[in-house]
Amino acid sequence: MKIAVIGTGYVGVVSGACFAEFGHDVTCIDIDAGKIERLARGELPIYEPGLENLVRKNLDAHRLHFTTDIGRGVSGSAVIFIAVGTPASRRGDGYADLSYVYAAARDLAPHLDGYAVVVDKSTVPVGTARQVARIIAEANPSASFDVASNPEFLREGAAINDFLRPDRVVIGVASERAEEVLRAIYRPLYLIETPFVVTSIETAELIKYAANAFLATKVSFINEIANLCEEIGADVQDVAKGMGLDGRIGRKFLHAGPGYGGSCFPKDTRALLRIAQEHGVACRIVEAVVEVNAAQRARMVRKIRRAVGGDEGGKTIAVLGLAFKPETDDLREAPALTILPALLERGAAIRAHDPQAMREAEAHLPGVVLCATPYEACAGADAAVLLTEWNEYRALDLAAIKASMRIPVLVDLRNVYDPAALREIGFAYHGVGRGSLPRFPAARILTAVAGGIGSGSASRGIA
Ligand SMILES: NC(=O)c1ccc[n+]([C@@H]2O[C@H](COP(=O)([O-])OP(=O)(O)OC[C@H]3O[C@@H](n4cnc5c(N)ncnc54)[C@H](O)[C@@H]3O)[C@@H](O)[C@H]2O)c1
Question: Whose CA is closest to atom 12 on ligand 1?
């Protein structure tokens, strides 16, 4: 089957390469000529494990093509996916910016030359597919097409596996013909018994927002429990394990830390709130989730401040990890983007390292000194902060790092390290929701406002 994918970001390239892997003839289209040139050579503008090999393999097999010529991609295609960005609007009101989606719809319309299904793969508010249908019908009244919604659930860093072995495929359609076409392109997934959820278009559009908002809720929930753990001397790692082993709750997304980030959760939770508001429906839980996430970022800044003695001014802080999560170079709405500027503003010097996000950091984190290795970042520092839990940071020579630091303070915002082992080496260790915090004078003032910080207990292991 001939397929067009409009937009070659994380979702567009992964979807295009995976559909080609299924055996379809896929053309990926973008307005960014530089990106297309690189992709056509088999070079990836983003870091995603395994993607470069998959793209190259399918380019070599002539099943995957990249072009800026939308006509070439759309003409003769049975399915056209819209996978362009839907960032939060620049107005700052939380609405998704749909201008790219609507531009793609207008651009593709004149090239429809036979029945085709135009599918929103981008995360879009309820009603967008109908609007896309109106735009296409207006631009090309004789076009024969259906619109559909097929939200994408892949996770950056594990995108290929998520696409080729998804938990489910959600298809929102308004005609049997469109359903048949979409089922046909996903046929290889039938063989591995992937559940298909076929719904109305509006339901499919909402499923994506509801799923992301629920996952964000788990993150904010465990972060509040972590804050409580710090007050009462409990260990959130153990609490999460004790909760998560209950099959009704599940262990995933119960990791306390600096709050969620990335290109999806922040904008999707805010967009869901706007959708609910427009329809006069209260979404108080999601409102709280968004507020708790912002408060968690601020709390992490205060945690680092306390760890360096109450004032970061003039201190050198090493930061390990900048991307919003491991295995990606994506810095969009990463905790680093709010935590680091707050520290810089109060006079800290920051030396940072990330295995993949250095290029992005150069553009988005002015004032941060980027270092070639985590060891270089930590040398001479007054504290080290683990911000992204890359695997390579799990196997660091922490004794060597300690020896190279001016003051051996480690703020582990991902609870990766064993507090007892770190203290044994000689570090002052601070995790998230893991019991005791040292009481510096400034922390006392803060705690008077916040209601006191408990001394807590050391982490206990669970067999
Ligand atoms: N990144 C993720 O992990 C993820 C996961 C699931 C869903 N989503 C959703 O998928 C959508 C795409 O996300 P992304 O992260 O891949 O976006 P992205 O910002 O990485 O890429 C979007 C691409 O679309 C291109 N583009 C914009 N307008 C265009 C036009 N008119 N014609 C052709 N190309 C155009 C841009 O040049 C860019 O290359 C968003 O709605 C997002 O919420 C993302």
Answer: 85
For 300-346, how does the pLDDT look when each residue is reduced to its tens digit (9 = 90+)?
Answer: 999 999 999 999 999 999 999 999 999 999 999 999 999 999 999 99
Determine the atom of ligand 1 nearest the C-alpha atom of 35. 39
Give the distance, in angstroms, between the CA of residue 187 and the centroid of all CA atoms in the same chain.
Answer: 28
Summarised one tens digit per residue, pLDDT across range 20-49 is 999 999 999 999 999 999 999 999 999 999
Largest CA distance in the chain: 74
CB of 311 within 6 A of ligand 1: the answer is no
pLDDT in tens, 409-431: 999 999 999 999 999 999 999 99
Ligand 1 centroid to Cα of residue 263, in Å, is: 10
Instruction: Give the whole-angstrom CA distance, residue 389 versus residue 137.
Output: 48
In angstroms, rounded to a whole number, what is the distance separating the alpha carbons of residues 204 and 170? 6
Count Cα neighbours of 447 within 13 Å in the Cβ-side half-sphere: 18
- Concatenated DSSP letters for 185-243? HTHHHHHTT--EEEE-HHHHHHHHHHHHHHHHHHHHHHHHHHHHHHHHT-BHHHHHHHH
Examine the residue annotation and report whether 264 is marked as an active-site residue of this protein. Answer: yes
Tell me the C-alpha distance between 220 and 212, whole Å: 12
**Beta carbon of 8 within 6 Å of any ligand 1 atom:** yes
CA 448 – ligand 1 centroid, Å: 46
Do the Cβ atoms of 387 and 432 come closer than 8 Å?
Answer: no
152 within ligand 1 shell (Cβ under 6 A): yes
Q: What element of type H or E holds 74?
A: helix 70-74
Closest among 264, 265, 283 to 273, alpha carbons compared: 283
Strand 409-412 versus strand 316-320 pairing type = unpaired
